[in-house]
Amino acid sequence: MEWIRPDSPTYDEARKLFNAMIDRRPAVIAKCSDPGEVAEALRYAHNHNLDVAVRSGGHSVAGMSTNDGGLVVDVRPMKTISVNTEAKTATAGAGLTWGEFDRATQQYGLAVTGGRASTTGVSGFTLGGGSGWLERSYGFACDNLLSVDLVTASGDRVTASPGENPELFWALHGGGGNFGVATSLTFKLHDVGPTVMAGLMLFPGEDATDLSRAYRQLALDAPDAVGTALVYLTAPPEEFVPEDMVGKLAVGMAYIHAGDVEAGEEHAKPFKELGPSVDLVSPMGYADFQCMIDDPPDHYNYWSADYHNELSDDALDVLVDSAQRLPGPNSQQLVARWGGAVAGPAAANTPLQHRGAAWVSHPFGLSETREGGQEAKAWVKQFRQDIAPHTTGGVWLNFIGDEGQDRIMAAYGEQNYRRLSKVKAQFDPDNVFRGNQNILPAER
């Protein structure tokens, strides 16, 4: 195991997260290659009275994969992956990113719902639920879990599956890193790709209101195999973007069909008939599409999210108005279509509430400067205030910053939270794993 301390030449790089707004200095970073080293790191933290954070991809926008003055269990060295093509399963080390996972499984035309940003870590993403482009076809990433191996606060190695520690297995379907350090996860896979019909279309921002209404209906009419999102963004200075659009508000529509290319082409036609100025929807590698909207590095990020049972005209007006005030060229406002397998039978087997919501809105406030980051944060908070009358009250915790215990309760509901608390009390009674969207252990 590698121990990295503040005097190490690799310390600053090792502590760095994707969100530049998070600048914390742990006392020690333990880079763990196997479960035994994870247990050793946890013993060290206990013996030295250090707070514990757990890091995989480091993509927690709230910075929950690090801390100040504590110990970080860094599982990035655990990058093994084993694909069983006959059983259509994959066992992934906790340090893998979705880009790495997808490249491995796509060699065999297999995939599971993964992060919309390829740099997201597999383990944190999945344990928080796992919302991605394939969710309408195959549910969230957690819905496809077959088992999870983890190390508990006491250093014990446990497996959670339907037949072994089933309550823990249930809790890991959205309960995050509250119960231990995941070291490997086994998923069921599905036939996807390697070539799919996917990509992004861009339209002029002056048509945002009409396009938003048109998208709403097309997304509602699309079959479950189609994953889409409406994206308000500033048109980037890329070769494929018309010069008169660059630097102005644009309306994007992201599209993927999880099935064969021919069906994907057919279902893309209604979107294409809207007449995009830029049309990048074409046959492409699924793994390439997964990298298409990766977050830019070294930016100050503030995000949030809300659920919607419907997108009324008034709700769309709020979205468009907010988009007119995007703070800087890299901020975006995204609305993803849910439904399909998201609200399917698997929904009853997770602690996540409001899975019947039809939409999720997800503002990304980004800036290259700290001052701009504060402006982006204010923009996100203003949007949440404006959109509140049109929301269900539910929230996707992986999409938000540190917004308090009320939002955590809103994600699970009172009954599921109590059940999660009982699991927490069994596997982490002292709340060692509290550097997260924290579930408090039930009192004994």
UniProtKB/TrEMBL annotation:
GO terms for molecular function: FAD binding; oxidoreductase activity. The keyword Translocase does not apply. Pfam families: BBE (PF08031), FAD_binding_4 (PF01565). PROSITE patterns: FAD_PCMH, OX2_COVAL_FAD. Keywords: FAD, Flavoprotein, Oxidoreductase. Residues 21-192 form the FAD-binding PCMH-type domain. InterPro entries: BBE, FAD-bd_PCMH, FAD-bd_PCMH-like_sf, FAD-bd_PCMH_sub1, FAD-bd_PCMH_sub2, FAD-linked_Oxidoreductase, Oxid_FAD_bind_N, Oxy_OxRdtase_FAD_BS. Its cofactor is FAD. The keyword Oxidoreductase applies. Belongs to the oxygen-dependent FAD-linked oxidoreductase family. This is FAD-binding oxidoreductase. It comes from Paenarthrobacter sp. AMU7. The lineage of its organism: Bacteria, Bacillati, Actinomycetota, Actinomycetes, Micrococcales.
